[in-house]
Structure formats: structure tokens, C-alpha cells
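User: Hello, can you help with two protein structures?

Assistant: Certainly.
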Amino acid sequence: MDKGHLSGNITYLMGGASLNDSLLQSYRNFHLTMQSIFLAIGIMLFISIITFKDFLRLTLLFILLLVVFTLSLTILYKMKRIIISRGEDVNFWHRALLKAEQNVPKSERYFTMFKIYQQSRYKKSEEHFLKETFLSETAQIDDKDLDMLIERNLGYTRKILDGWLFTGITIIWALLFLFSVSWYLFYLHTLGF
């Protein structure tokens, strides 16, 4: 493969990776914005529920909270699947880029060097091994090798946003809903229901 074609191939792969990473960030931003709005509405409804003493208003607010709660969690789990899937798309482009860089001199494997840098932050002891595996002129990498740079130790941000954030939002909603149900049942009990 000539150098011009190889350079164009790497540029194309970097464009694909950048586009998919940009889409991933957009989906995350959209999702966080939506969930923030839903949680704000949920908190306002909860405050209204514990404030009002009128049975009809309280019941309507509780039903509205139930609708917002259901809508929020439905969107949360659908968006989680979309975001995880888009993350796998980013991984696809990163794999292809790492493979393509194996055909250029090691001093020009910038993306590979960056991925080694990322991984060595987690396990400094593996830095030499990763450099030998990916930056030697004679290395033959396979999918298992690529997993060392792509799948293992996904970035800290990705772990937080693709895992803990969804769990955290679910826990907040569960607590909010549990407190609302408890208050509503308590109120019904004081009315003699």
C-alpha cells in the first residue's frame, strides 16, 4: 500500500471515529439534559405532594409524578442501549484505526501512542509490554491485542457516564418515588382510607 493511500485511509478512519465519538457525546448530552429536566419536574411534584392537603390535588399530583417517573425511566433505559451501542461503534473505528496504523512507521502511530498512554495510566507496569506489542516494526497484532487498548479499562468518563450515571439516576428516581408513595399512603391513612 502506498503512503498516500495509507494516509488517506487513516484520515478516513479518524473521521469515522471522530464522527461516532461526537454522536456519542451528543447522545449523552441530550440524555443528561432530558433526565435533569425530568428530575427537576419530579422534585417539584414531590414538594407539591408533601405541601398540598387537598385529596383531589394530591391524587392528581401523585398520578402526574407516576407518569413522569415512568416516562423518565423508559427513556433512561432506551437511551442507555443507544449510548452503549454508539460506544461499541466508536470501538469499531478505534480498532480499525489501530490496525491501519500498524502499516506506518512507529514514530507516526499517534493514535496508538495515545491509546497506550491511556492504558498505562491505569497500569504503569504494562506500558513497556504495550509499546513492544503495538509499536515494534515487526509486531503482528490480533483482536485480543486490540482489546487491551480498546475494551479493557474503558476510559474513566465512559465508565461513569455509561454505567454509574444510569444507576444513579435510577436510584434517585426510586427514592423520590418511594418517598412520594409513602407520603401519599400516610396522607390517605390520616384521612381514614
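That covers the first. Now for the second protein you mentioned:
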Amino acid sequence: MYDPVNGPLLVLLFPDNSSYGSLIRTYQYSGGVWTKHTDDLSSTAFSLGVYAGFLADGSLCVVPTWTDASVSAWRSGAWESIEDSVFSDLWNKTAGFSDDGEVYLVLENPQNEYALSVYQYDGSTWTILGTVGQFGAATDAWIGFNSMGEPLFFSCDYDYETGYSFQMYRWTGSDWEALANFPEWVITPYLCSNPIVSSASQMWCLVRDDSGGYPDVRTLEYIDDNWIMVGADPLSGGGAIAEDTLIDSDGNPIVALSEINAFNEMTVLRYREEAWETLGIRGFTFGDAADSGAMVLGGDGYLYLAYRAVGHENAASVMRYPMVQD
């Protein structure tokens, strides 16, 4: 994350051995040093990930995933619970933060065949978008926003007989509108932190391609109500896992990859002038396997990438790339 006032902010999720649950810890980067930013936030429920963003009042908000529904904000030097009582029997699936500080939460109901619902928090009130359980169950889900700030909801499900099925919806202000289906050859869209990103006039999606005998990443662009493949070749050519993607200040998509054929080293690519280019060098983690990557564009002209350095006892690492030179 990047705090426009204080600079880079790192939100980490740890297993809490004392409670067999999870612990969220945050660090702020200032003056060349990472310092602890908030008190630890612990839970007796085990989480697999955490989403974080800023509310309209500037408060840091965190949402642990794959656990009992909980949403917390750091206000006045303490963590404050902001979930609704209706969430008590629901589980967090995924979350998204709009540019104006609203939280969009995807919850599943284990007592209703894991049906999914979307809730919006405007800083004081939770509102359900659509109807309860409108999307049915899904193996994975994601929520984000197009260039006009409209919420996009994506669901992916798997059936042993029919395989993967996935669909994207756009919130019109009163209902969810289904967008075009994905091509039949798509195995599954990569559900990284941001599998779908939008510029002022374009929208891209990362998808998985197994045609080479190993998982690799391709990019689709949404044109005239259809998903069209960008480029003739997969992004790696030797197998890769998509970690994160975003849009730069000029509207170009940037993708972080963990490359299977290169010991899972991290590589960052950008699509500009109808071609993919490498930012820095390929495999810049230099022999160290890396995963759980997350990127953010800082207001200081740098692209920041946080990742887990597997070869260094899974330590959290942060690197930055100067975008201003381009």
C-alpha cells in the first residue's frame, strides 16, 4: 500500500501460534527504515490472506479472508470493528477498496450452499448490492472497479464434470449486468490480487494457459463486448504464476510474475505500444523463489513490489523501481 501522506505501508499476515489463528501486523517506511505502524490485530480464526485499503476518513482498513466475516479500521490509535451484525454467520471471501474510500465485501454463507453476496460500506453504513446469495456458490471470487469507478464482480467455480465456469458482472447502480463470456480455451482467470484492471478506455484480464504443458499467463482485453487475446505468446514462455497487476499513470497494464522455469524468480512486465517490455531485468530476485507478490504505484514516482522471499525463511521483502525514468 502507499499512504499519500506517510509513504509505503506494508500489511503482513502471520499465523498466530498462541491461538492457532492469525495475526495482522503493519509497518511504515520512513527515512530508510521500516517501523511498526499499528498494534497487532489477532484473531482466533485462521486466515489465508488479507485485503487492506484506506477509508474515506483516511483510516487504514483490513479484511482477512477465508475466515469468519470481520472488518477492522485503525482509528484514534486502536483497532475498531466495523462489521455488521448480519455478518455473524458469514465468511469473508474477498474485498475491494474504491478510490473514494468505500469498502466492497464479498461474503459467502456456509449455511446456504456457500452462496455469495456483495456488501458496500460507505464509512458509516453497510448496504447489500443486489439480493442475498444472488451469485450462488463459487470456488473463487474477486471484486474491483473499472475506470469509471463502477464495481466489477467476478466469480469462478469448478465442477468435476463440466470444469471451470466464470462470469464477470458490472454494478449499474441498481443491478448486476453480466459482461461477455470468456473464450472456451481459458482454463481459469488468475485470481491474484487484481486479475482485472482498467484504464480510461480499456480493460484487461489475466488468464491461465496450459497449452505448453505447464501453467502460463496470457492477457485478454475487453473490446466491443468481447475478450480478445493480447499478443501471440504467453507472458513467460516457460511457465509462470501471476502475482499481481495494476495500471500505470499512462494507462498501461503492469504484471508481476513468479516464473516457474527460472526457480520462481520474480519478473515485472508492462504492456506499452502494443508490446510487452521488462521493467528492470527478468528474475530480479536473483535465484530466490518469490511469491505472494503485491504491487503499488507510489506518489514518489516509484513502483513498489512486496513479496515473500522463500529462500530467506519466507521473510517479507520490498523492492522498488523508478518509474520516472520512463
